[in-house]
Amino acid sequence: MDATSPTSAAPRALFESSGVQALLDELDAELVGLAPVKGRIRDIAALLLIDKLRAEQGLQSQPPTLHMCFTGNPGTGKTTVAMRMAGVLKQLGYVRKGHLVAVTRDDLVGQFIGHTAPKTKEIIKKAMGGVLFIDEAYYLYKPENERDYGQESIEILLQVMENHRDDLVVILAGYKDRMDTFFSSNPGMASRIAHHIDFPDYSEAELMQIAELMLGKLNYRFDAGAVEAFGRYVHLRREQPHFANARSIRNALDRIRLRHATRLFANDASLTRDDLVTLHAQDILASRVFTQAKQGAPS
């Protein structure tokens, strides 16, 4: 087959042979739900594969701009997806290293004149060849403070995002409404973001799945009563302030394991393997979430 003849590879085979399918499968196993997000990551991978094939066939090809914005509430998997995205980009040769550097404003912006530029440039140097993930990126811009140095960091980022887009992908993350305000105040940044991906909150059923996956990795399990009790817990906790999706579920499981350990020691009996791995309803129902729900109920 000469250099200009069409390729005969089917899309599924291309995903398999590139190693991207394995990475997407890992993302699927690691994260419950998020179908629209996973679909967009697959679309981006497909774009890069086709772009690579076009170059191999001698067709005009220009690396696409892949800077992104991830919006959604805490605990919806934004950092995990960014990490997997870095792996996909490395697998397809878009970046050299495929690592993730996750930062916030404090890592980029200094407290005095002359401090911000070196901090920002040092972080960019660490991220080059991979993905720079800036969480709560809107805190870089504080127009109410005329002595704030965040704008200096933004200007440096803008230059790097334009001049080194073939070896660095920047992902900005945060709440959707705040990111919208940030972009309206920073048109230069908005014009460099090619992909906006929204991460939805998890449903109660998905949160239960997440809990089961987390417990399985730790060699714990719920008994039948605990499954019912944790379902009630999830329903109540989602209605309370500061709920952070999978992050809140992980914190809840840590406290349940703590109460489980306390209960086992209180019994002072010989422990079986089943005792060590099985969480009961009482380990869950002792949560103050249930107490607060009773206190808030109408009399």
Write the layout of secondary structure elements.
Blueprint: H1 11-18, H2 20-30, H3 35-56, E1 68-72, H4 78-91, E2 100-103, H5 105-108, H6 116-127, E3 131-135, H7 150-163, E4 169-174, H8 176-185, H9 187-192, E5 195-199, H10 204-217, E6 221-222, H11 224-238, H12 245-267, H13 273-277, E7 278-279, H14 281-285, H15 288-296
Parallel strand pairs: 1-4, 1-5, 2-3, 3-4, 6-7
Helix pairs in contact: 2-3, 2-4, 3-4, 6-7, 10-12
| Structural class by sheet pairing and helices | alpha/beta
Spatial gap, N to C terminus: 80 Å
Largest sheet: 5 strands, parallel
Tell me, what's the shape?
A: globular
Low-confidence stretches: 1-6
Work out the helicity level.
Answer: 55-70%
CA-based gyration radius: 23 Å
- Strand/helix succession: HHHEHEHHEHEHHEHEHHHEHH
| Individual helix count | 15
Strand order of the largest sheet: 2-3-4-1-5
Secondary structure: number of strands:
7
Mean residue pLDDT: 90
The percent range for strand residues is: 5-15%
Notable traits:
299 residues, alpha/beta, 7 strands, globular, disordered N terminus
Description:
The structure is a single chain. With about 300 residues, the chain is α/β, with parallel strands linked by helices. Helix content is about 60%, strand content about 10%. The protein has 15 helices and seven strands. A five-stranded parallel sheet has the order 2-3-4-1-5, sandwiched between helices. Strands 6-7 form a two-stranded parallel sheet. Helix 7 links the parallel strand 3 and strand 4. Helix 6 runs parallel beside helix 7. The chain starts with 10 loop residues before the first helix and ends with a helix. The N terminus is likely disordered.
